[in-house]
């Protein structure tokens, strides 16, 4: 090992560095494969999750009990501003797991890193293999109405007929204030009668725009 590297890792042997690095890389690849199973992930995301344990491990070894180095590393990382596209809870879990594995291998707790990876990846694999629930009839309903209609109760009778629950979650003026855009979260009693409900709403709102889509869940929230 070159002298400058030996000085940096003064308390770490060549064998320890090699073994911990290999474990970090193998566990990182395993995490990427498991969390990418049945999920459309970009190559960049999978590469990042694979490399993150090794990167964190090296950072921890660089600090290695040195307070000055620790403060310098903390300052360097504080300069990084993270940007993310809309992700989901699984992405957060995979990133935190990869970081935790790097911390464990960096402090030479290889057994703990392996056990943690196996347990969390097993849970992720089981939940990924489960079929998606399709029983829920929850929908997001967007309706445009003229300003002459009272949006508080304009569709109450229709919702009572076709839904088990309904909630007005947003009101927005459009077209220079001459129209209202209403957003509802509704739970359909019978999904096969969605068209009948929309037809009755169209009669009520003067055949203006009506959009009925799948309700957003926390899985689509931005990281």
What is the structure about, briefly put?
The chain is α+β, with helices and mostly antiparallel strands and 223 residues long.
Q: Strand pairing plus helix content: what structural class?
A: alpha+beta
* Radius of gyration of CA atoms, rounded to a whole number: 27 Å
Give the CA-based shape. elongated
Proportion of helical residues: 40-55%
Number of domains: 2
Number of continuous helical runs: 8
Mean pLDDT rating: 81
Q: What percent of residues are in strands?
A: 15-25%
In spatial order, strands of the major sheet run 2-3-1-4
Uncertain spans: 3-9, 218-223
Descriptive notes:
- With 223 residues, the protein is an alpha+beta fold.
- The protein has two domains: 3-129, no CATH class; 138-215, Transcriptional regulatory protein pf0864 domain like (Alpha-Beta Plaits, 2-Layer Sandwich).
- The chain contains eight helices and four strands.
- The chain has helices at 3-8, 14-36, 43-63, 67-78, 89-106, 110-129, 156-162, 194-204, and strands at 138-146, 163-174, 179-188, 210-214.
- The protein has a four-stranded antiparallel beta sheet.
- Helix 5 packs antiparallel against helix 6 (110-129).
- The radius of gyration is 27 Å and the shape is elongated.
- The two termini are 40 Å apart.
- The model is unreliable at 3-9 and 218-223 (pLDDT under 50).
What descriptive keywords fit this protein?
disordered C terminus, 4-stranded antiparallel beta sheet, 223 residues, elongated, disordered N terminus, Alpha-Beta Plaits, alpha+beta, 53% helix
């Amino acid at each position: 090992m070159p002298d400058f590297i030996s000085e940096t890792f003064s308390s770490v042997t060549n064998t320890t560095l090699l073994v911990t690095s290999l474990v970090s890389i193998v566990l990182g690849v395993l995490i990427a494969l498991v969390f990418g199973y049945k999920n459309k992930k970009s190559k960049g995301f999978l590469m990042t999750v694979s490399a993150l344990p090794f990167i964190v491990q090296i950072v921890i070894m660089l600090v290695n009990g040195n307070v000055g180095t620790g403060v310098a590393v903390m300052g360097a990382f504080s300069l990084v501003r993270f940007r993310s596209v809309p992700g989901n809870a699984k992405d957060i879990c995979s990133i935190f797991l990869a970081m935790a594995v790097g911390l464990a291998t960096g402090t030479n707790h290889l057994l703990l890193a392996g056990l943690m990876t196996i347990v969390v990846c097993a849970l992720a694999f089981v939940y990924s293999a489960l079929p998606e629930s399709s029983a829920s009839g929850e929908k997001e309903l967007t309706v445009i109405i003229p300003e002459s209609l009272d949006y508080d109760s304009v569709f109450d009778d229709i919702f009572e007929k076709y839904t088990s629950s309904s909630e007005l979650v947003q009101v927005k003026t459009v077209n220079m204030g001459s129209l209202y855009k209403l957003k509802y979260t509704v739970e359909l009693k019978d999904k096969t009668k969605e068209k009948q409900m929309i037809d009755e709403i169209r009669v009520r709102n003067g055949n203006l725009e009506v959009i009925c889509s799948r309700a957003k869940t926390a899985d689509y929230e931005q990281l």
